[in-house]
Amino acid sequence: MSLAIVQDLLVCYRQLENDKATERRKEVEKFKQTVQQLDQNSDSRHGKQLNWDGVFRYLQKYIQKEMESLRFAKPNVSASTQAYRQKKMQEISSLVKYFIRCANKRAPRLKCHELLNYVMDTMNDASSCAIYGDDCSSILLKDILSVRKYWCEISKEQSCNWLGKPHMVHTKYNLQHHCWAQGWRGA
To answer: Organism's domain of life (predicted)?
Structure first.
């Protein structure tokens, strides 16, 4: 396994947004096959096969490399370069959300602690938080806290960790309203 797998998934993701219907159709078939294989591998829990958790780890490495390249990029550039960087950041963010939702669509396949670590690592880094903070709050609320299986896997220490962060105020507010709307108690 390598970062090439994540790159292939990124290419597939980009092709799904292609203007040509035939290209999108081809990629949908490739994507369905990949998803089925990842589901089977994740269900079987064989250590040497590529599964959702493995791809998520490589996706995190890809995001880290992209963030480093953006962090060390020249700050004074043309408007078109700035627009390209913005587009790239949005693309990365939507790829992460898309990946998590695909992985957990049929059942929660990703490990809760991996998702929480990703969210907290992103929120604890000032530059990452500025770029991806809202998306991480959305992932936390919609893709972690709304999954009943994950509730039991979140330790008190973990929940105190992210609820104690000042940048999570927006998430706490949304969580309270989400819990109230769902009829949950104690949130």
So the answer is: Eukaryota
Confidence class of residue 115 from pLDDT cuts 50, 70 and 90? very high
Cα–Cα distance measured from residue 56 to residue 53, given in angstroms and rounded to the nearest whole number? 5
Dihedral sign, Cα of residue 111, residue 113, residue 114, residue 118: positive
Compute the distance between CA of residue 57 and CA of residue 117 in angstroms, rounded to an integer. 11
Domain ranges of the chain: 3-182
**Per-residue pLDDT reduced to its tens digit, 96-105:** 888 898 888 8
| Residues 30 and 76: beta-carbon distance below 8 Å | no
Give pTM, 2 decimals.
0.71
CA angle 83, 86, 113 (to 5 degrees): 170
Distance (Å) of CA 124 to CA 58, 72, 92, 96:
20, 19, 18, 18
Tally DSSP H helices, then E strands, for the chain.
9, 0
Q: Which helix (H) or strand (E) holds 65?
A: helix 52-71
